[in-house]
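writing this on my phone so excuse typos. first protein, seq and then structure
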Amino acid sequence: MNKENVHAVNIKEPTTRITRARAKALGVSRDLPPLHPQAKQEFNQFLQPNCKRGSSENKSTDMGSNFQSKRRAVLKDVTNMKVINEIKIQTSKQTRKNVAEKNAMVAPTVYVGPQVWKGKTKATQDMTEQSIKELREITSQLKLVNDLESKPIIALGSSLPKGEIKISNQLEAGNEQTIIDIDSKHTVPWMCSLYAAEIYDNLRVAELKWRPSVNYMKTVQRDITQEMRGILIDWLVEVCEEYTLGAETFYLTVTLIDRYLSKMYIEKQRLQLLGITCMLIASKYEDITAPRVEDFCFITDGTYTRKEVLDMEHEVLDALGFHLSVPTVNKFLRRFILAAQSSYKVPVVELEYLAKYLAELTLIEYGFLKFLPSLIAASAVFLAKWTLDQIEHPWNPTLEHYTNYKASELKPTVLAMQDMQLNNGASLQAIRQKYRQKQFKSVATLTSQKPVKPLS
């Protein structure tokens, strides 16, 4: 094989880049394919004067894509708003057509004539302008929605005059007519901030339906007295502490006892049996881990057997029709304390404990059955604030709004509650000893010798 044949064999389509020096050394420069093909040169010459336009086209396309995805994210965020039905966002047929054209443009790079490039750029610009216009409309609509959602729900039956009260998320200094929105800070699901107003409106109706009789000692019972009832409840306070039961369990226990005694006659020998049975039912309903039946038999020193407790449980549930979810003082007290704390920059722990202490004292007294649970809760907050501070008026528009009680409507309950608070010589001391402990800030020792004046 001669040199020419050798060269002919070696001259093929180069698979790697060959420099000019290498080509000269091989002596095959005249036979190598051109470094820049003609078609590629013509395409580059066409793109050279329009390179900025091609970049603008890509940028515009990306901008339109970003607007489209952002619009979808915003719509997902507002799907749970109440006024979403009032917002109708429509996309024009031309916009959808342009979006389809844009998707069809995503293809391998091919040679495109100048007129086609000009048309694509114009279509992309039109699509971007349309997207920007729609995005501005959506933004303005979402701003309106947020303004509507930020306004708190006005509780039904509010005694405040319309147009004279300003509702705000924060306390404005020097403005006594400001109502603070106590639900705006709580976004966790278990606080039910979106439905709190409706829930408490329903509780206000339910407390009228399920309240016990205010004079069952005269009309139904003949063998027990008010003092016996007080002794039983005072003992149940110690039982709750013994088994670390919740506060709502104690309130519900007393409510079940009074509701049963309002309907069924009972002998005094079975009054304690009724007490532990109602606490068993309440602990099953409210506590995570309820004490066993044997525990309640043990706490009575074996006075009652397991069968007697279970039989009494059947009687109580049958007499009450299994209606156990009833409003108690504690249910209203939680919300009213939250409204009272809103006027302070830092929550006052003593205010919470003192209001709970005063509310629990009313459970022992039979005479407080004539007052509604919501009224007792509001009066406990009023007297607690007055006990801690006799200078500032204990009632404000926020409390009046959320309790639906004016200060004058609390007068009988507050005065009766203060007499009980000042009666340190009472024979039943379980609740007082409980709230003398340091864990409750010893609020049972706090009293106000001044009579409550701002009740007119």
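second protein below, same order as before
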Amino acid sequence: MDDTVFALSSGQGRAGIAVIRISGPHAADALTALSGTDLPSPRKAVVRRLTDPRTDEQLDQALVLWLPGPGTVTGDDMAELHVHGSTAVVAGVLDVLGTLAGHRMAEPGEFTRRAFANGRMDLTQVEGLADLIDAETAGQRRLALAQAEGGLTARCADWKAQLVKALALIEAEIDFSDEELPEGLSDQAVSMISRVHGEMTQILASASAGEVMRDGVQVAILGAPNVGKSSLMNRLARREAAIVSDISGTTRDIIEVRLDLGGIPVVLADTAGLRDTDDPIEREGIARAKSKAATADIALWVCDLSNAEDPVWPEGLETTRRLVIGNKADIAGEGEGQPCDLRLSATTGEGLDALEAWLADAARDLAGGSGAAAVVGRARQASALRDAADALQRGLDEAAQETDGEAALVSEEMRMALRALGRLVGTVDVEDVLDVIFRDFCIGK
């Protein structure tokens, strides 16, 4: 990483202030070239006149900071330019930086990747930062902050220390079996392993809730044509997200909107009306609706209270959580229509508060509460942690056998568990996932 990289780290477009970051061995040269003066005191914000060194034309009056490494976010020398956020100012400064020797525009995620390479962040913190940037709800923010600030990192460090100590005790019994060793070394090791395994198992139990919090609770709106599915979604979204028409089969593809229900992200999907049809396009829409129903966390089945023959739930459509909604309560008489869990009117809004309350409770249950207690937020993290826990369980099973050679087998399982923890935090065998993680970052992070 000999290049010095730079990028706009604040948002694109017109703003009061724009922050341009510079990181690398020539960051000091960039700052002195732009300001025409000596470096300011480290970590002290000062006002400087920024000029183009080629023409001496003034670019801006800016607040600048000099941040010498390794105590920076990337671990390299860094400079920050807090300039006025006009397109012309930002473009002018970036243009000058691009002409300096050894400087180039940063790639997406390159600042964070340098922080990872220099040991300033581990892989779980990198993923937490990415999720924090993308957070749309309070629950997602809490989960992402916990990871970005090293919540899972600290757990892994504690587990590693305990497992290394347990492994040392086991290895001592293997290597010095002819020596007089204190009694109960293997019992101490098994106790440590059991304790770590219990903590891992407890965290894995909340892994699905963490993934739901990160990706959103998936809710499918299902029903026959013209029962008011699209009207209901527009009501919940509070905007005209889906086309509403009296013509049957209007919705042929899945239309999704994202909601924030009490800090829990919810992805609401309007689907094609389920019926028998000869139209090949509508048949494809119906197939997609059934597929969505099969993978959704929650299914809302909408029926028409004004139509006594409207099906309450189609045979063969299985979902984990479902709610049968009777729509068009404004035109149906009291007690009319098929039995349902909730009566409402997508036209008038009657019963909508009750539906939103039910959805919020169900979403909160699926996401494990507010998200503050969740530790694991990604499938990759859960997979590595599960591998470690499985290795520990195998080690405990071997230790319980009390047979010749069991200590060597337990020792090998401990090494497997430690390697899995290494993959979790990014210290071993992670090259194949790094590009995937960092390419999703925005430029300037």
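DSSP finds 14 helices and twelve strands in the chain. thats all i got for now
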